[in-house]
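Side project, low priority. Logging it here so it doesn't get lost.
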Amino acid sequence: MGSEKNTGFEIKDLKISFKVFNGELKVIDGVNIKLNRGERMGLVGEAGCGKTTTLKSVLGILPKQAMLKSGQIMFNGEDVLKFNSAQMQKFRQESCAMVFQDPSSALNPIFKVKDLMINGMRNSLNTKDKSWEKEAYGRAVKALGEVMLPDPKRIMENYPFQLSGGMRQRVCIAMALATDRHLLLADEPTTSLDVTIQEQILHLIHKLSVEKDMSLVLVTHSMGVIREMTDRVSIMYAGTIMEVGDTKDVLENPGHPYTRALIDCIPKLTGDGVAEGIPGRVPDYLNPPKGCRYVERCPKATAVCREEKPQLVECGPNHMVACHNFGR
């Protein structure tokens, strides 16, 4: 990829554990993600694989039990993990936004939409000038219109509980994109929505990310969504990246047994056969396998898989896989 697209955002060897009563949960074990300007990347994996934890680490909003063991999150040449509170606040205000799974928990129910929007923009632009509120109101109305909400001025006067789930999620997207950002993190933004609204929200996120030339990291369980929405995809399992590459190439030529298993779980339009899922479960993070974390569920596992953690190696143009038995 050309250097002119380089946005300077990269997660390097991120390791995060959580302190619990009976020990330490080793959840994130060496995650590496690199994103180019305007590029859309999917992050796919089963529930409990560390996708949300990875995104939250970028914004510094992990719970107190989280312990950073190692790694860097580089943005424009600076390590986000070393930011002080003022630098992190500026990063959240000016550079990175996040759309969460549940819009109900992301919107304060005691404020009207106009207050949430205007206060969010005031914080983003770091101004206390009251005369700016008229302009902010206009920008908020425009942002609500961009997310296809009908009668934005009426929506501005509503409280979140007066809106449907799809409308609340659109408000969250409008808040995230009301001011210019370089990076949007979308954590399963359609989980709580019905199927027809899901498609609208995903189309909206894709459309706005293209129009605003923003980089996008989209967390989802759906391979169909990944195919339609992203340029590249990272396959995550138990806190590690198993495979990464151009979306079309990874889905058509999966190099890792886990990627293949995920694809095999997709129901066939012909109705031939029934997807049975992947036998087994995500490993215990208190005592994860010494080698590959997928070893207990992998049909190709060998002795070396139990002893040595596989590293990402190139298996094609812009395509890398972490498997000792790739090609066998």
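Brief comment: The chain has twelve helices and twelve strands.
Revisit when time allows.
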